[in-house]
Amino acid sequence: MVLSEIWIYPVKSLGGIRLNASEVEEKGLKFDRRWMIVDEDGMFLTQRVFGKMALLDVSLLENGLVISSRFELGNEVFVPYTPVSGANIEVKVWDDIVQAVTVSDEADAWLSKQLDKNVRIVMMPESTRRPADPRYALHGEAVSFADGFPFLLISQGSLDDLNSRLPEAIEMRRFRPNFVVTGTGPFSEDAWKSIRIGSLSFDVVKPCARCVLTTIDPKTGEKGAEPLKTLASFRRVNNKILFGQNLVGRGTGTVCEGDEITLI
Predict the structure, then answer these.
(1) What confidence score (pLDDT) does residue 245 get?
(2) Which residues of 246-259 are buried (b: 16+ CB within 10 A; e: fewer)?
(3) Alpha carbons 218 and 224: distance in angstroms, whole number
(4) Concatenated DSSP letters for the chain?
(5) Where are the chain's structural domains?
(6) pLDDT tens digits, one per residue of 190-202
(7) pLDDT score recorded for residue 201
(8) What is the C-alpha to C-alpha distance for residues 65 and 23, in angstroms, rounded to an integer?
């Protein structure tokens, strides 16, 4: 089994970035969902409600992010890694209220224009600790602004099986994984407890329950019925539709495309 793809999503619910290698930190891969867009009340925004977010791409520079509009060449804004507005505010992501830092008034204005709503982009400072769900986290692990856990893994075999049932094949990025694995049968990851990716160990703690975000085409921002309609026909457990597995890490280091994956 091999790690075939590595993905990060620096700004929650915006475009992802595929990497050849990434640093593994307790909260997730480096840069992964360390930024988030919030409304005037500090509530997080996602593609579930604001489909336009699917059309905003993110790239990494040495000193910050660039967020760009996919279909408007040159329409972009720079988001510095070191905040220049730097106000401490409370933000809400699902049931958690955590401390965050505002980043850039310029970026706020640009994003507000793109989304037709007054919004701010915030960063999670290192000092903020957001615990992962204690019912599943094994050692009090922390998480970034991701929905619930630091890492998400899906096997290519699982997507291939799903695509064989769909009227039209979809890409893996619909599901926003961090790790894609090749060399397994469909849904083999459901039975895993602990794995090693290269030299680093991870615990598989919980299946990932999927929502309407997976029905949004990441290329166009358009919403449809699939893949949830088909997934519901064979992956529904206790009224949740499951696809992929959430992970927590046992340490820090680096993972690379091509790393061997072994079961512990």
Answers:
(1) 98
(2) bbbbbeeeebeeeb
(3) 12
(4) -EEEEEEE-SBTTS--EEESEEEEETTEETTTT-EEEE-TTSBB--TTT-GGGGGEEEEE-SSEEEEEETTSTT-EEEEESS-SS--EEEEEETTEEEEEEE--HHHHHHHHHHHTS--EEEE--TT---BPPTTT-SS--B--SSSS-SEEEEEHHHHHHHHHHSSS---GGGG--SEEEESS-TTGGGG-SEEEETTEEEEEEEEEEP-GGGGB-TTT--B-STTHHHHHHHSEETTEEEEEEEEEESS-EEEETT-BEEE-
(5) 2-28+132-263, 33-123
(6) 999 999 999 999 9
(7) 98
(8) 17
Residue written as tokens 């206790």?
238
pLDDT of residue 138: 84
Answer left, alpha or beta for residue 86, where phi above 0 means left and psi between -120 and 50 means alpha: left
CA distance 81 to 31: 10
Residue type, 51: G
- For the segment(s) 2-28+132-263, the CATH number from 1.20.950.20, 2.40.33.20, 3.10.129.10, 1.20.1260.10 is 2.40.33.20
In DSSP notation, 201-213 reads EEEEEEEEEP-GG
Average pLDDT over residues 6-24: 98
